């Protein structure tokens, strides 16, 4: 008998992944979360719900996304064959749309006419505004003021889609503050509002639900890799902010003992500088945004302001399932600096003609280190979670170019 | 009997209701809080809720978030909050003090160390906004063994089944949050509050305090007619903010608001 955990059995009935997860919210939200959990648990076993989800993914999102063997880059790296799971080719340009489609279907079934969301890089905001437009729902998106400034393109995109973007000036004016503000809105307008959380964090059932919706990435990648090579990959690599694209890729492979998994946190200016967003590498367990997980915090338990060149990774926490997978040793969590991610952004663009999001560039940069340590008979799947168009202003500013 | 239970018993014997102020400890600096606590007691309050500042107060509105930022900037940690309570206790052995805040600073200190140090400083109860009864089971025994009451919130959205569960887990008193929304938002509907408090009473032996939306003497009086305690927070914290540049004025300014509320609550109908 294996001592491997039954990964599919997590979270438990109370939303716990071992010591992580749970539901740590003010009483006002408890009824809404219980209601959401009941609705979701019922639909989880309802084939008609998943059939509707799958149809939307196929016909609106454009799934399955390809699994692409990067032959030229693999040859240059001189090691493992590197495959890209092309979530950047999804409608709206990232993996975020998988989850927003799922949660929008829930909102529709629950009769909620108003949708709120938080966003960092704006990918989740755009995906949410998109499904809200499609379903004719009112939509407001909270975004840190600093992220509004560095992600102008996505802010304008959300405006065009009919969503209202509300800049949040409190705290560090980034993703965590946007999440605080969205939770405040939800507490106030809980009767008619559905809060679409964009990652595998937050109070139970969000980490479970978002993971379930994102599992499509790993299910497809597993089947595609088997079809293309006749075997499973040796390693998976994905960036981790909250960690929804990573958990989506990892989850369907958890029982495949031979498949190594690497979650790549944002190393910012370097872990030793303290200017980063790598809670698993440099944080400790604590409670924020409704769940217990690894957090970047002071000795007194105050949350530390984070730094990453990619707005989507600029978050002081991580999804509780990642905290758990790290603690049981099933997945390894590594980190990549801003400079390494920027170099990977440029390199992949030049060598393969694929411009990855700065978030995904962290995964690309780690694959560049990992591939040469493996043999050409081995393979790596890198999750290309989003496309880099939204980050062109950031990269151009570093090059001293103004449009 | 705990200091909180004793206080509510004495008030009940006099046919009076408790007035409970909330201020953020260390706002705008730790030196202000002890004189402010004494001034509030002189103005007629029965129990003091001290906010423990947190960097991410998700269930609070902008008034209290800014108070947290001022207090943190002035170096207010949980240890400093204990110092404040210890100093208050050198001149006041009777007024209960409840710490109100978020879980993470407590978790960072460790539950056992927190409960021990809180009790030693003279803290009587704890209200952790983001620690519902379901998640508090592992710590309930620790708090109980140190004689620290655990105060829980009940919201307008709370089902009756949950009310019973919360009442069973709580001690000291129960805090009914009379509005959906964050602290400092909108105004309250007294009739709705009356109906809800009656429902809670069916499930709970504990005294029931009502907070959120109590802004002035009139709303304090109205709520005191239906609940055992009136909790007032943002209206006081706003006074602190208004006087942050002249902190010496803060005790008098806040006491004035509370004196008016006390008088209105004690008027016979």
Automatic annotation (TrEMBL), chain A:
Q: Which SUPFAM superfamilies match?
A: Tryptophan synthase beta subunit-like PLP-dependent enzymes (SSF53686)
Which reaction(s) does its UniProt entry say it catalyses?
(1S,2R)-1-C-(indol-3-yl)glycerol 3-phosphate + L-serine = D-glyceraldehyde 3-phosphate + L-tryptophan + H2O
As one GO molecular function, the record gives: tryptophan synthase activity
One Pfam family of this chain = PALP
| Pathway terms, separated by semicolons | Amino-acid biosynthesis; L-tryptophan biosynthesis; L-tryptophan from chorismate: step 5/5
Asked if the record carries the keyword Disulfide bond, the reply is no
Keyword Metal-binding in the entry? The reply is no
Q: Write down the EC number.
A: 4.2.1.20
Could you name the domain of life of the organism this protein comes from? Bacteria
Tell me the cofactors it needs. Answer: pyridoxal 5'-phosphate
HAMAP family, from UniProt?
Answer: Trp_synth_beta (MF_00133)
**Binding partners and assembly:** Tetramer of two alpha and two beta chains.
Spell out the family assignment given in the record's similarity comment. Answer: Belongs to the TrpB family.
PANTHER family in alphabetical order: TRYPTOPHAN SYNTHASE, TRYPTOPHAN SYNTHASE-RELATED
The protein here is known as Tryptophan synthase beta chain
Source organism: Isoalcanivorax beigongshangi
Automatic annotation (TrEMBL), chain B:
Q: Its catalytic activity?
A: (1S,2R)-1-C-(indol-3-yl)glycerol 3-phosphate + L-serine = D-glyceraldehyde 3-phosphate + L-tryptophan + H2O
Domain of life (superkingdom): Bacteria
Q: Where is the active site?
A: 49 (proton acceptor), 60 (proton acceptor)
Question: Which Gene3D superfamilies does its entry note?
Answer: Aldolase class I
Q: Which residues form a coiled coil?
A: none
Q: What EC number(s) does the entry state?
A: 4.2.1.20
* Pathway terms, separated by semicolons: Amino-acid biosynthesis; L-tryptophan biosynthesis; L-tryptophan from chorismate: step 5/5
Q: Which molecular function GO terms apply here? A: tryptophan synthase activity
Q: Is Lyase one of the keywords?
A: yes
Keywords, in A-Z order: Amino-acid biosynthesis, Aromatic amino acid biosynthesis, Lyase, Tryptophan biosynthesis
The job of this chain, per UniProt, is described as:
The alpha subunit is responsible for the aldol cleavage of indoleglycerol phosphate to indole and glyceraldehyde 3-phosphate.
Q: How does it assemble?
A: Tetramer of two alpha and two beta chains.
The entry sums up its family as follows: Belongs to the TrpA family.
Q: List the PANTHER family.
A: TRYPTOPHAN SYNTHASE ALPHA CHAIN, CHLOROPLASTIC, TRYPTOPHAN SYNTHASE, ALPHA CHAIN
- Entry protein name: Tryptophan synthase alpha chain
Provide the species name. Answer: Isoalcanivorax beigongshangi
């Amino acid at each position: 008998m294996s001592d491997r955990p039954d990964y599919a059995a997590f979270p438990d009935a109370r939303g716990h992944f071992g010591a992580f997860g749970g539901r740590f919210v003010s009483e006002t939200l408890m009824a809404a979360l219980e209601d959401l959990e009941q609705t979701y648990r019922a639909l989880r076993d309802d084939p008609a719900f998943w059939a509707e989800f799958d149809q939307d993914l196929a016909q609106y999102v454009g799934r399955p996304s390809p699994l692409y063997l990067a032959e030229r880059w693999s040859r240059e790296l001189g090691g493992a064959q590197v495959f890209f799971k092309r979530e950047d080719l999804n409608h709206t340009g990232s993996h975020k749309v998988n989850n927003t489609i799922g949660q929008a279907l829930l909102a529709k079934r629950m009769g909620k006419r108003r949708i709120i969301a938080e966003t960092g890089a704006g990918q989740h905001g755009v995906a949410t505004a998109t499904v809200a437009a499609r379903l004719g729902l009112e939509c407001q998106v909270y975004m840190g003021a600093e992220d509004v400034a560095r992600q102008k393109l996505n802010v304008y995109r959300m405006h065009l889609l009919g969503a209202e973007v509300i800049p949040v000036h409190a705290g560090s004016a980034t993703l965590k503050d946007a999440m605080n503000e969205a939770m405040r809105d939800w507490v106030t307008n809980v009767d008619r509002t559905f809060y679409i959380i964009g990652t595998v964090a937050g109070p139970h059932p969000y980490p479970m639900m978002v993971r379930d919706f994102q599992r499509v990435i790993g299910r497809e990648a597993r089947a595609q890799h088997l079809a293309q090579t006749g075997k499973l990959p040796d390693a998976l690599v994905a960036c981790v902010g909250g960690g929804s694209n990573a958990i989506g890729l990892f989850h369907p492979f958890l029982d495949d003992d031979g498949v190594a998994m690497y979650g790549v946190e944002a190393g910012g200016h370097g872990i030793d500088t303290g200017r980063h967003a790598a809670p698993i590498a440099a944080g400790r367990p604590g409670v924020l945004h409704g769940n217990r997980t690894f957090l970047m915090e002071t000795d007194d338990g105050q949350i530390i302001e984070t730094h990453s060149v990619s707005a989507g990774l600029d978050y002081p926490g991580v999804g509780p399932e990642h905290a758990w997978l790290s603690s049981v040793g099933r997945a390894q969590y590594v980190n990549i600096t801003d400079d390494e991610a920027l170099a990977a952004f440029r390199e992949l663009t030049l060598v393969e003609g694929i411009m990855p999001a700065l978030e995904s560039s962290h995964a690309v940069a780690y694959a560049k280190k990992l591939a040469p340590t493996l043999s050409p008979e081995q393979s790596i799947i890198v999750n290309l979670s989003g496309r880099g168009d939204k980050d062109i202003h950031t990269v151009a500013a570093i090059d001293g170019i103004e449009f | 009997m705990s200091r909180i239970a004793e206080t509510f018993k004495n008030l009940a014997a006099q046919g009076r209701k408790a007035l409970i102020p909330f201020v953020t400890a260390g706002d705008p600096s730790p030196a202000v809080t002890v004189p402010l606590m004494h001034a509030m007691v002189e103005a007629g309050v029965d129990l003091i809720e001290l906010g423990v500042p947190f960097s991410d107060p998700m269930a609070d509105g902008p008034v209290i978030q800014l108070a947290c930022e001022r207090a943190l900037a002035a170096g207010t940690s949980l240890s400093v909050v204990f110092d404040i309570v210890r100093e208050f206790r050198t001149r006041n052995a009777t007024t209960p003090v409840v710490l109100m805040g978020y879980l993470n600073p407590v978790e960072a200190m460790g539950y056992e160390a927190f409960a021990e140090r809180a009790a030693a400083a003279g803290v009587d109860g704890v209200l952790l906004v983001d620690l519902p009864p379901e998640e508090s089971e592992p710590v309930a025994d620790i708090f109980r063994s140190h004689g620290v009451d655990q105060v829980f919130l009940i919201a307008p959205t709370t089902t009756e089944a949950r009310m019973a569960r919360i009442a069973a887990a709580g001690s000291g008193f129960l805090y009914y949050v009379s509005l959906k929304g964050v602290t400092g938002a909108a105004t309250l509907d007294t009739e709705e509050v009356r109906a809800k408090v009656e429902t809670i009473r069916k499930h709970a032996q504990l005294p029931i305090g009502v907070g959120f939306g109590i802004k002035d003497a009139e709303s304090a009086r109205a709520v005191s007619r239906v609940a055992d305690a009136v909790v007032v927070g943002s209206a006081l914290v706003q006074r602190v903010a208004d006087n942050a540049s002249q902190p010496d004025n803060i005790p008098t300014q806040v006491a004035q608001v509370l004196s008016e509320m006390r008088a209105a609550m004690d008027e016979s109908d």
